[in-house]
Amino acid sequence: xxxxxxxxxxxxxxxGMVLGAAEYKGDDVEGFIKHLEKVSELLKGTRPTAVNxxxxxxRMLKVAYNNRQASxxxxxxxxxxxxxxxxxxxxxxxxxxxYFGQQLLxxxxxxxxxxxxxxxxxxxxxxxxxxxxxxREVGKxxxxxxxxxxPYLQGARLTAWELMEEGIPVTLxxxxxxxxxMKKGIISAVIVGADxxxxxxxxxxxxxxYTLAVLAKENRVPFYVAAPLSTLDLSIESGDDIPxxxxxxxxxxxxxxxxxxPYGVKVANPAFDVTxxxxxxxxITDAGVVYPPYKQNLQxxxxxxx
Length: 306
What we know:
Layout: H1 6-22, H2 29-44, H3 51-65, H4 72-102, E1 110-113, H5 128-137, E2 143-147, H6 154-166, E3 170-173, H7 178-183, E4 189-192, E5 196-198, E6 203-206, H8 209-218, E7 223-226, E8 232-233, H9 250-253, E9 254-255, E10 258-259, E11 272-275, E12 282-285, E13 288-290, H10 294-305
Helix pairs in contact: 1-2, 1-3, 1-4, 2-3, 3-4, 4-5
């Protein structure tokens, strides 16, 4: 969790490949590529849910495969340049997400967000928070309600801090308060990030996202997902095929290192949940906003970009 947030995980994995490449001593290209493949398998085992991890690693491996005729040192240089390129692309991608997403928000909108999908979860700017930033940059008076996001408290510790640093009005609430504020008509829209989006538009994101989506639909509040195209995984049909990371039980039994639960209690701690596509109003990508039916429209968008 030193690195978290799908885009940040992806770019960090790219630099992980660079660091792994640097460990290789020798000039045998095929031996070097086998070494890179071992590094890639180690990195792939770190975070199973975020598809950006796998996307970035495959992109780095492709650089090595496509330059087998070059020397080991030259391939190492090319890998570093590719990782740098991916880092720059991430900032630009986030800004495009913000550009498309802010058009969905009216002046005076109050946005509810979950977890942290800002500059701290990306190389810079953010996905869900990038939409809010972009709206503020064009002069819209946008304020935010941020879920604390138990058990790791990314909303309380990261999102609230990030928005305050930007001078964006933010109100911190516990996760269980979201429905109350939606029912009172305070929330204009919910915007979250994503760790993986299936071909049918099912969305894996931080645990608690599904609950928000159900509450949003019940209260007629639009529920938006902001994510780059690299978070799409059209190789899987639905969210049922997305692996869900299970994390340390101490994240649930302790807060700030202090035990809050009885010794010996059984704990479940899935880090993510899957929101079925029928609860998603639209998916905001760096190539435009996608509406249902997602299976057809996500594929059309990818085909257009390719």
